[in-house]
Design brief:
With 106 residues, this protein is α+β, with helices and mostly antiparallel strands. It has helices at residues 49-54, 79-86, 93-103; strands spanning 7-13, 33-39, 55-57, 63-65, 89-90. It folds into two domains: 7-39, no CATH class; 49-103, Factor Xa Inhibitor. Helix content is 24%, strand content 21%. The strands form two sheets. A three-stranded antiparallel sheet has the order 3-4-5. A two-stranded parallel ribbon has the order 1-2. A hairpin with a 5-residue loop joins strand 3 and strand 4 (63-65).
Length: 106
Amino acid sequence: MRANQTKKWKIFALHSLGGGYNAGLHILGPPGFEVVVYEDMMPKQKTKKSIVKRVKVTARGKLIRHKAGAGHLKSRKTNSQLRRYRKGLEIPAGFARQIRRMLRIG
């Protein structure tokens, strides 16, 4: 460690006890350490990658998914069925709210 660097002692305080930036927090670090307080710092929320792979978000914010059943056994399905499988299907509003939460959208 260089001579001009100070040792830092990080503290993650989950709740402030009052008004401004370090209000109500009286924390003493070990001698020779600078105390750095990160107030109300929660971990970042991660998106669910499995949902990202399965759902497309349109420009207007609708959620589109693929139809099930188009992967195999195509010889016994009619041409009109196979054409319908190519189109996406909009996800209903009740499920869309949950999926938006998983995707961290609005």
